[in-house]
Amino acid sequence: MEIAGYAAAILIGLSLGLIGGGGSILTVPILVYFFLIDPVIATTYSLFVVGLTSSAGAISHYRKGNVNFKIAFVFGIPSLIAVFIMRKWVMPVLPHHLLNMGSFELTKPVLLMLVFAVLMLAASISMIRKKKEILVSDPLLSYTKLVIQSILVGIITGFVGVGGGFLIIPSLVLFAGLPMKKAVGTSLMVMTISSLLGVMGDVSRHAPIDYKFLLLFSAFAIAGIITGSYLTKYISETKLKPAFGWFVLLMGIFVLITTLIK
């Protein structure tokens, strides 16, 4: 199962390299189902992996001039604060047992996986549907919405350990008026910083972290990014993204069903 898990890590990187996002949504399920890691710890590990893999993509986009630092600052700061608060203070105080509904027991790990399944379904839909032309509204109003969206992304990132690229990219296009390529590059920069800061929040409260395993897992993911970036010359993103979206949709349904029937 571990060999399959490392192969899946390459898939995470391939998706980031080929379509600029989506792969990080698979990190927690891969850690939970292939490596049998507790969902709560898996969110910490996911933030570490997302931070490292996103940094590889962010550096590549920076060299191409696809990172808008002003927008990254406006979007990133509220998100960073939200992520750190979630990891440092909110997550530790959430009780393990939340409530009972008949024979179904809602625990903290179960809640994490349920939220994660919903996010996977949302991310898959955003990848499957065709892009429509986006009109940018009033700049002042847009920046207000951008900050609100940033805080929302930070809360989600801090709670379930995903990068949130499927939420960040549309926000940067809609509210900041960035072209898609710059939105992807700026999104990767924000995800890098917010994810690694989230890990720092966990480290500061002495959360158990297996750095050797994480570095090995991340190495496979980064190898996938490098391969995916090379394959972009030969594979159409417009055809690949919906196909990957359907895969994430099936994975989301699988996570939802297996979590509910435990």
Please tag this protein with its features:
two-stranded antiparallel ribbon; mainly alpha; 10 helices; 262 residues; 2 strands; 77% helix; cell membrane
Task: Count the DSSP helices.
Answer: 10
- Looking at how many chains there are and whether they match, the oligomeric state comes to single chain
Largest sheet: 2 strands, antiparallel
The value of Rg in angstroms is 18 Å
Helix share, percent? over 70%
The beta-strand count equals 2
- Class from helix and strand fractions: mainly alpha
Percent strand? under 5%
Which stretches are low in confidence, meaning pLDDT under 50 for 5 or more residues running?
none
Query: Strand order across the biggest sheet?
Result: 1-2
Terminus-to-terminus distance: 20 Å
The backbone outline, from C-alpha atoms, is globular
Average predicted local confidence, pLDDT? 87
Please trace the helix and strand order, writing H or E for each element.
HHHHEEHHHHHH
Summarize this entry quickly.
By secondary structure, the chain is mostly helical.
